[in-house]
Amino acid sequence: MKSVLLGFILLLKGTFQESVEELLLGKWVYVKGSYEYYDSAGKLLKESGMNAISNLDIQITKESATIIYSKDKSTTRNYAVTKGENGRHFISVSLPRGNFNYEIASITSTDLILLARQNTSFALGGDDTKQVSYCLVKIYMSKK
Questions:
Q1: What is the pLDDT of residue 78?
Q2: CA torsion sign, 51 to 78 to 137 to 128?
Q3: Which end of the chain is more exposed for a tag (fewer CB within 10 A), N or C?
C-alpha cells in the first residue's frame, strides 16, 4: 500500500514539474507598483514601483528567458531557465559582478511571482537610507 501511495505522489510531482515548465512559456509583463522588499524574517521593508524595473518584460521559451528591462525596451539579456536540485525553478544569469537568480515562487496560467535574494540599501524616506545585508525582493508578473 505504501509503495502504491509513494508511486502516486511521485507521479503527481512529475506532472507538477512539467506543468510549471509549460506554464512558464510565453510573455510576462511586470505589474506596475508591485515590487516589495522583505528582510530575512519575512517582514515587509518597502513597497515600491521602482523606475529600474517598471518596464520589465520577460519572454520565456523552453531553452531560455529574454528579459527586457530598459524604459525604451532596447536592452535585453538572455537568461537560462533552470531547475535546482530542490526541484525549484529559476531564471538565472551570470553577470560580471556574479551570478543572479530569480526563483519562481508561484505560477499560474496568468500570474507569476519571482523572488530575488540580494544585498541592498535604499531610502525609507527623506535622507534616511537603510542598509540591508540581506533582503528578499518579490516581483509580480502577469501573462500578456
A1: 74
A2: negative
A3: N
Question: pTM to 2 decimals?
Answer: 0.60
9 pLDDT higher than 50? no
The rounded Cα 22 to chain-centroid distance in angstroms is 16
3-state secondary structure of 52: helix
Can you say whether residue 127 is alpha, beta or left, with left for phi > 0 and alpha for psi between -120 and 50 degrees?
Answer: alpha
Output the pLDDT for position 140.
78
Number of neighbouring beta carbons within 10 Å of residue 63: 8
**What H or E segment, with its residue span, contains residue 20?**
helix 2-24
Q: In terms of Cα–Cα distance, which of 55, 38, 56 is closest to 47?
A: 38
**How far is the C-alpha of 55 from the C-alpha of 68, rounded, in Å?**
8
Contact call for residues 46 and 77 (beta carbons, < 8 A): no
pLDDT in tens, 35-51: 666 766 767 766 554 44
**What is the three-class DSSP state of 40?**
coil
Structural domains in the chain plus CATH codes: 2-143 (2.40.128.280)
Cell matching residue 32: 506596475
Q: How far apart are CA 40 and CA 28, in angstroms?
A: 27
pLDDT computed for residue 24 by the predictor = 81
